[in-house]
Design a protein that fits this description.
CATH class: Mainly Alpha
Strand order of the largest sheet: 1-2
Helix content: 55-70%
CATH superfamily: Cytochrome c oxidase, subunit III, four-helix bundle
Strand content: under 5%
Distance between the termini: 64 Å
CATH architecture: Up-down Bundle
Number of domains: 1
Number of strands: 2
CATH topology: Four Helix Bundle (Hemerythrin (Met), subunit A)
Length: 291
C-alpha cells in the first residue's frame, strides 16, 4: 500500500512539474491540449478535403484522363506504402501506451520503428517521383512522356505550343481605295474602312495542347499528374514533419521524460500520425487503384 502511495505521489510531482501556470490541474491541461490538437487536425482535414473535391471535379469532367494516366502508377508500390504506414500507426499507438505505463525502453523502440516506417515510406515515394521525372510524367507544360502505360517508348508529346491564327483575307473596294488614295490625302467614308478579320469558330485561346503522337492518349493528361503530385507531395510533407517531431520525442524518451505522470506530447503526436495514416488510406485507392 505504501509503495502504491509513493508511486502515485511521484507521478503527481512529475505532472505538477510540467503544469503551466494558467492551468489549475494536470488533467485540465491535458484536456485543453487534446481539444487544441483536435481543432488543428480538423483544419488539416479541411485542407485535404479541398484537394479531394478538386480530384472529384476533374475526375468527373475528364474520366478518360484518369483512366489512362492511372495506368502509369505502380499499385504495388502504393500498397507497400499503405502497409508501411499501417504498421507505423500500430507502433505509434503502442508508443502512446508504453508512455502511459512507464515502459521507457519499449517506448523508445516503438518511436524508432515509427520513424523508420516514415523514412521507408518517403524512400519509396522518392523512387516513384524519380521514375516519373525520368519518363517526363509531370504536371502542366512539363508533361512530355517518353513511355506509354505499357512501358514501351513513344514519341514525346510537346507541352503547350502557341496557337497561330491566320485571319482570312477580306476583300474591300473601299480599303483598296484607301490604300491607293491615302498617300494623296483623300479622305474616305467610315463605310470604306476594312472590317475586322473574322476569327476562328468556337472559343478562342492563346495556346492549345499539342496533338499527341500516341493516338490512344487522351488530351490533358497533365491534369492527372498535377493533382497526383500536389496531393501526394503535400501528404509527404506531413510525413516529413511527423518524422521530425517523433525524433524529438525519441530524444526526450531517452532522457526519461515520459511516464504515467506526463505523456501528453506522445499522445498528441500519436493523434497527428493517425491522421497522416488515414489520409494515405484514401489517396492510395483513388490514385493507384480506381482507373
Amino acid at each position: 500500500m505504501s509503495e502504491a502511495i509513493a508511486i502515485n505521489a511521484t507521478e503527481e510531482q512529475v505532472a505538477r512539474a510540467h503544469l503551466a501556470h494558467h492551468f489549475d490541474t494536470p488533467q485540465q491541461q491535458f484536456d485543453a491540449g487534446t481539444l487544441g490538437m483536435w481543432m488543428f487536425l480538423a483544419t488539416e482535414m479541411l485542407l485535404f478535403s479541398g484537394l479531394f473535391c478538386a480530384y472529384a471535379v476533374f475526375r468527373a469532367t475528364h474520366p478518360e484522363v484518369f483512366r489512362y494516366a492511372g495506368q502509369y502508377l505502380d499499385p504495388v508500390s502504393g500498397l507497400i506504402n499503405a502497409l508501411i504506414l499501417l504498421t507505423s500507426g500500430l507502433t505509434m499507438a503502442l508508443a502512446v501506451r508504453f508512455a502511459q505505463t512507464g515502459k521507457r525502453f519499449a517506448l523508445s523502440l516503438c518511436l524508432a520503428l515509427t520513424m523508420l516506417g516514415g523514412v521507408a515510406f518517403l524512400a519509396i515515394h522518392a523512387k516513384e517521383y524519380f521514375d516519373n521525372g525520368q519518363a517526363k510524367l509531370l504536371w502542366g507544360t512539363h508533361y512530355a512522356p517518353t513511355v506509354g502505360p505499357n512501358g514501351k517508348p513513344i514519341a514525346p508529346v510537346v507541352g503547350l505550343v502557341p496557337l497561330v491564327v491566320k485571319p482570312k483575307p477580306v476583300a474591300s473596294a473601299g480599303w483598296q481605295q484607301l490604300n491607293a488614295l491615302g498617300k494623296t490625302g483623300f479622305v474616305v467614308s467610315h463605310s470604306d474602312i476594312m472590317p475586322a478579320p473574322t476569327g476562328p469558330s468556337g472559343v478562342a485561346t492563346s495556346q492549345k495542347p499539342a496533338a499527341p503522337e500516341n493516338p490512344f492518349q487522351p488530351a490533358n493528361v497533365q491534369i492527372f499528374f498535377g493533382i497526383y503530385f500536389l496531393m501526394t507531395g503535400l501528404h509527404s510533407l506531413h510525413v516529413i514533419i511527423g518524422i521530425i517531431v517523433i525524433g524529438w520525442l525519441l530524444i526526450r524518451s531517452f532522457r526519461g521524460e515520459f511516464g504515467p505522470g506526463y505523456n501528453a506530447p506522445v499522445v498528441y503526436v500519436g493523434m497527428y500520425w493517425g491522421v497522416v495514416d488515414m489520409v494515405w488510406m484514401f489517396l492510395f485507392p483513388l490514385l493507384y487503384l480506381i482507373h
